[in-house]
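Checked the freezer inventory, then went back to the computational side. Two predictions to log before the end of the day. The first one is the construct we discussed on Monday; recording sequence and tokens without edits.
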Amino acid sequence: MVPCLLYVSLEEKDIQIKLSVMGPLSHWIMGTINYWLLLTRSDDIRECVRHMETDWKLVRRIDDQEVMLRYAKIGRFIAGFCAVFMQSGTFLFVIAKAMTSITILVGNVTTSMHPMTCPIYSKFIDTRFSPANEIMLAVELLSCFIVNSITVGACSLAAVFAMHAYGQLSMLFSWLNNLVSDEDKKNEYAEQKLTAIVEHHLRVLRYFI
């Protein structure tokens, strides 16, 4: 990321090339920011995971388990979709560009090279020549996979946590419907059920906070 920033700011003069590099470069920058945010919020993430684990241990009714399982499957589907979409999209873009070949003039010598998605400042590594060109393309693919994984991880955590909360709220809605039925039937356990609903609602609110 830093060599590419130096390339854009110090080496490249063509505005069109600079603009074409800004898209992939911004992707790398956002991946770095996402990684930093995940690290800084690691304690909160760990607490949310423990909260989810406790919710699964507390559930007793089969109907509630089915509700939680249904929304957990939706969360996993969204996480899987994010992984496939992000990895395939960026990899296809990087590989398609790397498969092309351009001809450049270095001094009096004409040579060909594979362009990089994020070019490197030539004062660090001159990627115009082999094998530096091929090695840095492989490094770029590896870094692309890592950055994508960070972004996918952040999106997947958000999706799984949100769907878990939605499942808990759906359980509360079901409990309230049962409570109304019990009130209509003058069920003596209605007050105990109302207490359980209020306590669980407070627990769900703590999950959001």
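The second is the one RB wanted added to the comparison set:
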Amino acid sequence: MLTMDARNFHGWDYRRFVVGHLRREAGNDPQALAHIVQQEYKFTTQKINQSFSNYSAWHQRSKLLPEIVVSMTTEEKNQVALNELDLVKNAIYTDPEDQSAWLYYWWLLGRAPDHVTLLGAYQMESDPSIVILGFNDTIRFMQKPRLLDQQDETLDCRLYPFDANSQNAASIWILQTTGAAKRVVVDAHVILPSTSAKSIPHDKVWNLELNKLDCNIGNLHFITFLLGSLASKLSDEWKPPATRMYADPTLDDQTSWFTLDKLKLFKDEIETVRELLDIEPESACK
């Protein structure tokens, strides 16, 4: 089907379905999985070279590229990024009115990273068994954070999302323990943001000492509400996902896999767009 009509959405959907089945059959065999990804990547190259105006091929390429470069050296990844920029700029110069290449160009350049951040970790002064974590985005946990005591021993704890509209996602999370917690440790790789507005910082580990939340008038209402909510949410205790959860690459910083100078890169690409506008003053790229 894609041989006759390389842009057929139904054909690309079915191909993704077949590839997904092949991935499941490959299981945990890294060589088999790498071969599948390489073959698909080559297929997108073939279809793009046949016609730059192929949204499905560009889109599929954006999903495959982070997997293609995962085992490469930093220098190799940077070279791949430069090669991809050359490819997509050729497409843009060939047909500046076509949006498919522009979308891939935007994806490749990425955006300024806006990372998920653990804003604070608090322990209620009146009830030290309650620990509160606050994030700058609604997040999901794939594993529980670790609560540590004075001897850095891990404490057993229960985890609850503080959100009336969700049982597994929240920006405020409550940990309940029977021990005397001193610190909390959260690995960034065990959380997922709720939207593409935020990304996960790579290799980040938050290791925070708990701040005491005193019972002043402002906090007292919050603490009372918190305890009442916790009592009503005992059935909503966090549980490990029944199926393995994967971080969607589109939720991550798209350019995190290469280390080219971002400032220089953007300056160069701005010049590229200006040059194109000089050639095609009525182009949609403006």
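For RB: The two ends are 35 Å apart (CA to CA). The first helix runs from residue 9 to 26. Let me know if you want it refolded.
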